[in-house]
Every structure is written in C-alpha cells, then in structure tokens.
Amino acid sequence: MSGLRPRPINADVVQAWRAAFADTPEIEIYQGSILNQQVDAWVTPTNSRAQMNGGVDAVIKDHLGAGIQVRVRRAIRSQFGEALPVGSAVCVPSGAATPKFLISTPTMVHVAENVSETLNVALACTAAFQAIHMQNEKAPGSITSVALVGMGAATGEVPPQICANLMWTGYTLFNDYYFHDYDDLRKTVLEQLGDIESRPAERVRIKPPQTQGS
C-alpha cells in the first residue's frame, strides 16, 4: 500500500512533552515525522497482535516495507506466543540502514482502542526502553539513540499532558530501576501508579524507587 502520510503533528503533545521533560536535557523534543529521525531505533506504538494497519504503525510499515510486520509478528510468536502483552516489547532488525531496529510495544490490546483510562502509556514506554536494554545486553552499543512518538495520544485518546507525564514516568523508571523481566516491569509500574486516578493531572509524575542491582 502506498500514499500513507503521517498524521499532523499534535502541537499540544509537543508542548506537554517540553514541560514534562524540562529537567531531562538528554531528551530532545522534535516536532516532525519520526521518519526523519536519524537514530538507531524507532519505537512504534502498536496493538497486541501487531496489526500495523493504522497510525504510526502503518506509516512505518509503508516506509520500511511489509516485511517489517512479518519480523515483528515472528518475534512476538517466538518470545510471547500469539499476542504481545501491554507492558512488553519486541526489538527487530528494520531491514534498513536507518533505523537499524524497530521496537514495537503495545499501547492497546485491540485496534483503535481508547486507553485514556489506563496506565498503558507508561507500561508501553517503560517496555520500549527495557527492549533497548535487552538488545544492548545481547550486542553492546547496538542502540545508542532512539525516537519515540506520543504514545496513545491519537487513536488511544490519551490527553496530551497525561501522555507526556506517563512517558516521563516510563523513561524515569527505566533509568532508575532494574527490571529482571517484563513481568517485573509491569508489577513495578502498576505499583508506582496504582493511585493515579486520585492524583491531579500535574502530579502524575512520580519519584521512582531506588536503583536495584541485578
């Protein structure tokens, strides 16, 4: 299929990112298409069966070719079975020079699912960074830069500020906590954000636990 174009950039998401990540200078906020990002890996929000027919998934599949969906689904079957749980991810070779890898992480179980009342964005973002960590354990230095989009901010209907804060949480947990596996990751994120419904939007950000050894 051809003729797919990225959705218009959501300026509200960009503004929310800039506020949420104001104290993390290593993060560059870019307003534009992920297809223009010259990094080692792209992260695409997907559904649990990696049906790459809409949103960023479809744009990336159109750009990299249909074979990318085959590789993603093969990795899911090999590592997880029939479906990729929310709070997990797969990292596969992209088949291109840039990026070298594609990381798929579900923000939803089904296609076009409203996830605005869930913690799926934090789970997906944390899982994406865990996939980077696992890839670099296998091949040190293989992923040194990565590009992400606003997870759940379009099809998932997550408000921009909540999306940005949950992604900040995922990034912070990745940096400050060691996850033994994806089950450990999901347990930690849910424990940290279990009372999110009672928090004002501006206080979604958390203080992560102390770093744990392996």
Automatic annotation (TrEMBL):
Gene3D superfamilies: Leucine Aminopeptidase, subunit E, domain 1. Pfam families: Macro. It comes from the Bacteria. Transmembrane segments: none annotated. Signal peptide: none annotated. Residues 14-198 form the Macro domain. This is Macro domain-containing protein.
